[in-house]
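Minutes, project check-in

Agenda point 3 was the complex the collaborators sent over. CS summarized: two entities, 341 residues total, and the question is how they sit relative to each other. Sequences were read into the notes so everyone works from the same version.
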Amino acid sequence: MRWLAEVHVALRPGIADPEGQTIGSALRSLGYATVSEVRSGKLMSISFDADDESAAEAAIGEMCRRLLANPVMEMATWELRAEQTDADEAIPA
Amino acid sequence: MTILAGRPRVVVAVFPGTWSERDFVHVAENVLGWECRTLWHLEAELGACDAVVLPGGFAHGDHLRTGAIARFSPIMRAVEAFAAAGGPVIGSCNGFQVLTEAGLLPGALMRNDHLEFRCDWQSLRVERPERAPAWLGDLADGDVIRLPISHGEGRYVADAATLDGLEREGRVVLRYANVAGEVTDEANPNGSQRSIAGLVNERGNVLGLMPHPERAAEAELGGTDGLRLFRSLERWLQEQPAATERRL
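CS then shared the predicted structure for the full assembly.
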């Protein structure tokens, strides 16, 4: 069975994020004066096969622990869903 | 470890994207007179060697995080075994990043706080070098040395408990400082927590540092303080009992 995981890697609270601060400054300089904070992160879309949902959950959790996030400064969350087949995609939403 | 005729044998690991290995080889062979081999990251055995260098660069393009993919290269299993057996390992710049990702050193190295790549000479204060006799044995507490830095991601980060532990155990061995040896925010080139530029593992045989000692080994290139690290290693190796050859 094909699964799609959207993995979001974010910096832990309290970890300085100079990139996010710079983006926030840029937004404010464009006139978005109400922007108080920007935190940057990474989004990864991972397609993979697993027998069922619990196996897919276990696999993506292991990928996050072993490689995708460094627990020293990051944490990972993900959304998992069965990937649509070609037939599903042909049906208008 | 057996030192043959007083010539240390050093292995320099090379990952795709490593860029400082030639400088290390030049210094080892032509300045220090050591035996030196480069070893591609796919090699699973180090062969006979007395020390291992993880040099600077951009291993695997720095993709995902600096050092994150390099830590899974086959050579890292051999480096971990060498370190676990007490063998001296130095990771400079990207090598330091690989050592933290591999868990051989605590913490992580993140984007410089000013978001710029910084390439400059940097003064560093040496602290409690007795924790790292292999690499810093010839230096004294409070010595100020000058080495080049060249990195965009050198901001050392760890949680407060880790930082306190490192300081309590005397494992922070280099801090960014000004020429007078004062550790100040102004002298910190990347926003590293507590101005940490270099640290060692619990046993003291694994050293990670952001500066490049191999680029400070000849007076005509601006300084020779990097040689003090390599001479310390040479002396330490010569003091080790012979006939304990590591086979890794």
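Noted in discussion: The CA atoms of residues 27 and 33 of chain A lie 8 Å apart.
Follow-up: revisit at the next meeting once the mutant set is ready.
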